[in-house]
Structures are given as structure tokens and as C-alpha cells.
């Protein structure tokens, strides 16, 4: 076994996780904002922000899906040691990590049920860059409008139509994180 | 600091609560079930709010706790001490200084900022519960957006009393979808819920968490001919003279004398410190001296 998998967890779990959750909550409550998320050092290709996010939110109770290049032995070993989340197929996942192309098609993921719309997947989309310029956003958490660079607009428009069902998204790059809940109305730039 | 994990709860419990908070923010007004833990205080003393606060606090936060607007009541003092002991966070009584505010049944008078979080203690999170006792049924009513019963209840208020008599826990509709119980805040506070701060609601005994992101649309239910009215006692505060704050009525003796004072103690104290004087302030200070 590679000893590197033992490294890269939180140095001070309760405090690091508290700061990380605050950043994650702020971006989910305010689509279009970007915050710093750090503390974990996951193996490549997973970003610091994505690793910190799953370390903060996932545990043996949360089935996790790894998409595309993110499904590699190093990442699996790191998750097995630090998080213990079962690695599952897309349809059973509560959380999923990967880039936009690897996560598609989105209709594989759980969108919740009319009685329990919270039983839906949260997708962590790894990006090349995050930016507050691009598609126009409207909805809860946004005073008038906000802007965010998105991989595409249509998928998020279709997702918003499912409300109150639907998927929620985090976008990560390096140690940066932003988010897009299902309530946000997206208008292509 | 202490032998407790930071903010009392174990990390797995906090992760479970944090996941519920995120889904709550993504589906504003929807009650997310969560596995509420036993806390070292009885149900009804804010166990839900305490668990949400524990999952939200960081060591850098400054916590304020209010009970019916007051910082110095038993419930507020004991919860503030609880977090001083288990999380080692700074505490304050000043609304502007706080980054996290846990509240029972009031929203502070001072407008909250984007960098603040308001955590409500909720006794009964289900707005339809007193109309329909079955959880299976109310869950179905929410899923079908079947809220006619709530309008019938408000209509019955009008037919019995001539006006909508519901004065606290006044139901609201969030983003045109979910009808939500704003917790037993006076309806005077309802219009403040469209605010810049994140609002989190925790119901410990009932095991529900729900949330409102900032600037979320929150509409108090009403009728065209009986519009919603954010009412308060028609009187200025007798201590600080404020005409815009929610007032408590205090019975002074058995001869029918009474006075009205701000329920938000920090708001009243800061106004008095700024030189505002109410009608009975001078007389009371004389008695105290």
C-alpha cells in the first residue's frame, strides 16, 4: 500500500471542516460568489477544493460517484482511508466528482422525489477556471443578478425547470469553489 | 479549552447536519429531515437551533443569542454559556458585532448584513400540523402544493374575528412554492425575512432543518381584501421612545398601569445610550436609584 494515501487529510479536523463548511454554505447560499476552500491535499486529478469539500461533507453514509479520470486507484485509496464513502455508480450517488464531460449525461443522477426533494445528488464539477463573468444568474441568494462562467447554460436551465426536484452543483478549481443550486435561473451570456 | 470536540457535536453528526443545511438552502422553505441528537438541554429549549449553530460555528465567530429579543433571559444565557464552554467562541450582546445570531421567536430590529447568519429555534416546523396531524398527509400536501387548507384557516379567522387574528408563526410562502412556518416570531417580523443574511431554522424534537438564502422571496399569506399587516402595539417604547420597534407589554401593578418596552433589549439599550428617552424612562431610573 502506498503510504501517500495516509496523508492529505485535515490537520485539525473540527476547525478545518468548520471553515470549509462555512465557505461551502456561503457559495451555495449566494450563487455567483467564489470562496477559498482548503485544508485537504487529495491525489491528482482531484483539486484541493473538491477534496476539502468531500472531506467536509462525505462519510460512510454518503455514496460517492467518481467520474472519468477521477475514478483512479489513488483517489479511491485516499477516499477509503480518509472518508470511507462507498464508491458507487451514478444512479446511487449522493455526491459525484468529475469534470463536466465525465459527469454527463446528468439524467443518471438522483433528482429527489416529490415528497423528499432533498434526496438528490450534489455534483462537484472540476473546472479549468472559475470566473464571475459569463452567464447571468437570478434567483434566491442573488440581490438582482449575478454572473458566473458555466460549462453550458442549457443543462442548468433544464435542471431549474425540475424545481423543487433537481441537482445542486459545486464548481471547483484549485482551492476555489462556487456553487449553483437548483433554484438559480440561468441565462446564457 | 475543554474536553469536548469543538462545538460539542461529533464530526459525523456535524457532517449530517451540514448536508441537511445545504439541501435546505438549495430548496428554500422545504423541511429537510435530519437525525437530531439528544443535547444536554431539554427539548423546547432550542436543541434544533443549538445543533444548527454547532454545525455552523467556526472559532472566529462572535455569537449572540436572544430569546424573545432579550439577551439576558435564561434560555439565551444558558445557550451562550454552552457555546462559550464547548466552542470557545467570542460572544456579544450587540447585534452589529455578531457573526452568528441564534434566536428564539424574534428577528433583531437592526437590519442584518451579508456576513451574518441568523439561526432560529423552531418548536413545530410544519405549518400545516395543527390543520392536519398526519405527517404522511402533510408531506403529500407539500409535494402537491396543496395549501388550500391554510387559506381556509385564515378565512375562518376573518369570519370569526373580522380580521386575520394569527399574530405569530404567521405562515409564509417561499419563492412561490413552499408554505413555511417562520417559527413563532411576531408577524411584525415577517417582512424582515427578505434580508441580506442567511437564515437557518432548526427543530430538534421534530428533526427538521430548513433555510432561506439571502434575498429570498418570502410572502406572508393573505387575501386581496384582507391584506397582510405587520402589526405591533400602537405605542412608542416607554424606555427609548422608539416608534418602529416591536414592543412587549409589561403590567406594572394591580391598578391597571402598564408600560410598553422594546422586546429587542440591545436595540433599546443602544437607543438610550444614544440619548433617546421614552415617556417612563425618567420615572423608572428614579425608582432604581
Q: What is this structure, in a nutshell?
A:
The complex is a heterodimer of chains A (189) and B (289). Chain A has 189 residues and is of the alpha/beta class.
Q: What does this molecule look like?
A:
The complex is a heterodimer of chains A (189) and B (289). Chain A has 189 residues and is an alpha/beta fold. In chain A, 49% of the residues are buried. Chain A is 26% helix and 19% strand. In chain A, helix 3 links the parallel strand 2 (64-66) and strand 3. Chain B has 289 residues and is of the alpha/beta class. Chain B has 7 helices and 12 strands. Chain B has a 7-stranded mixed sheet. Chain B has a 3-stranded antiparallel sheet with strand order 7-6-10, with no helix packed on it. The model of chain B has no long low-confidence stretch (mean pLDDT 95). Chains A and B meet through helix 1 of A and helix 1, strand 1 and helix 4 of B.
Please give the order of strands in the largest beta sheet of chain B: 1-9-8-5-4-2-3
**Oligomeric state of the chains present here:** heterodimer
Order of helices and strands of chain A: HEHEHEHEEEHEEE
Shape of chain A: globular
H/E element sequence of chain B: HEHEHEEEHHEEEEEEEHH
Q: β content of chain B, as a range?
A: 15-25%
Helical percent range of chain B?
25-40%
In terms of topology, how is this protein built?
The complex is a heterodimer of chains A (189) and B (289).
Chain A lengths: L12 H17 L5 E2 L11 H10 L6 E3 L6 H10 L12 E5 H4 L18 E5 L8 E4 L7 E3 L5 H8 L6 E6 L2 E5 L4 E3 L2
Parallel strand pairs in A: 2-3, 3-4, 4-7
Antiparallel strand pairs in A: 1-8, 5-6, 5-9, 7-8
Helix pairs in contact in A: 1-2
Chain B lengths: L10 H16 L5 E2 L13 H10 L5 E6 L6 H13 L3 E2 L8 E5 L12 E5 L13 H9 L4 H14 L10 E3 L3 E3 L17 E6 L4 E5 L5 E3 L26 E5 L6 E5 L2 H9 L7 H8 L1
Parallel strand pairs in B: 2-3, 2-4, 4-5, 5-8
Antiparallel strand pairs in B: 1-9, 6-7, 6-10, 8-9, 11-12
Helix pairs in contact in B: 1-2
Amino acid at each position: 500500500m502506498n503510504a501517500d494515501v495516509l496523508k492529505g487529510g485535515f490537520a485539525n479536523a473540527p476547525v478545518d471542516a468548520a471553515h470549509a463548511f462555512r465557505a461551502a454554505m456561503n457559495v451555495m447560499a449566494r450563487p455567483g460568489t467564489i470562496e477559498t476552500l482548503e485544508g485537504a491535499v487529495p491525489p491528482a486529478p482531484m483539486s484541493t477544493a473538491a477534496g476539502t469539500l468531500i472531506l467536509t461533507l462525505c462519510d460512510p453514509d454518503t455514496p460517492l460517484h467518481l467520474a472519468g479520470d477521477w475514478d483512479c486507484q489513488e483517489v479511491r485509496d485516499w477516499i477509503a482511508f480518509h472518508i470511507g464513502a462507498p464508491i458507487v455508480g451514478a444512479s446511487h450517488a449522493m455526491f459525484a466528482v468529475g469534470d463536466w464531460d465525465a459527469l454527463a449525461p446528468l439524467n443518471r443522477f438522483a433528482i429527489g422525489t416529490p415528497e423528499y426533494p432533498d434526496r438528490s445528488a450534489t455534483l462537484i464539477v472540476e473546472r479549468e477556471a472559475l470566473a464571475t463573468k459569463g452567464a447571468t444568474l437570478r434567483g434566491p441568494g442573488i440581490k438582482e443578478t449575478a454572473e458566473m462562467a458555466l460549462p453550458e447554460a442549457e443543462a442548468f436551465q433544464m435542471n431549474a425547470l425540475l424545481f423543487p426536484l433537481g441537482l445542486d452543483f459545486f464548481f471547483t478549481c484549485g482551492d476555489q469553489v462556487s456553487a449553483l443550486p437548483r433554484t438559480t435561473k440561468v441565462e446564457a451570456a | 479549552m475543554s474536553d469536548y470536540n469543538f462545538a460539542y457535536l461529533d464530526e459525523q453528526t456535524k457532517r449530517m447536519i451540514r448536508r441537511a443545511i445545504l439541501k435546505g438552502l438549495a430548496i428554500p422553505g422545504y423541511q429537510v429531515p435530519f437525525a437530531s441528537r439528544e443535547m444536554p438541554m431539554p427539548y423546547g429549549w432550542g436543541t434544533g437551533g443549538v445543533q444548527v449553530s454547532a454545525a455552523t460555528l467556526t472559532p472566529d465567530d462572535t455569537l449572540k443569542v436572544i430569546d424573545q429579543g432579550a439577551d439576558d433571559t435564561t434560555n439565551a444565557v444558558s445557550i451562550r454559556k454552552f457555546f462559550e464552554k464547548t466552542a470557545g467562541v467570542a460572544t456579544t450582546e450587540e447585534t452589529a458585532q455578531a457573526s452568528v445570531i441564534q434566536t428564539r421567536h424574534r428577528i433583531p430590529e437592526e437590519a442584518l448584513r451579508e456576513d451574518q447568519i441568523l439561526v432560529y429555534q423552531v418548536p413545530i416546523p410544519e405549518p400545516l400540523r395543527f390543520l392536519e396531524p398526519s405527517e404522511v398527509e402533510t408531506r403529500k400536501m407539500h409535494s402537491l402544493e396543496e395549501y388550500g387548507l391554510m387559506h381556509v384557516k385564515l378565512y375562518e379567522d376573518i369570519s370569526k374575528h373580522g380580521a386575520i387574528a394569527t399574530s405569530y408563526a404567521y405562515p409564509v410562502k417561499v419563492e412561490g412554492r413552499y408554505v413555511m412556518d417562520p417559527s413563532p416570531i411576531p408577524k411584525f417580523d415577517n417582512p424582515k425575512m427578505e434580508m441580506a443574511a442567511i437564515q437557518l431554522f432548526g427543530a430538534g424534537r421534530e428533526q427538521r432543518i430548513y433555510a432561506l438564502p439571502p434575498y429570498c422571496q418570502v410572502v406572508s399569506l393573505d387575501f386581496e381584501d384582507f391584506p397582510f399587516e405587520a402589526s405591533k402595539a400602537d405605542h412608542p417604547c416607554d424606555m427609548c421612545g422608539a416608534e418602529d420597534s416591536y414592543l412587549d407589554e409589561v403590567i406594572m401593578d394591580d391598578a391597571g398601569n402598564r408600560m410598553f418596552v422594546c422586546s429587542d433589549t440591545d436595540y433599546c439599550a443602544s437607543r438610550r445610550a444614544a440619548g433617546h428617552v421614552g415617556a417612563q424612562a425618567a420615572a423608572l431610573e428614579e425608582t432604581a436609584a
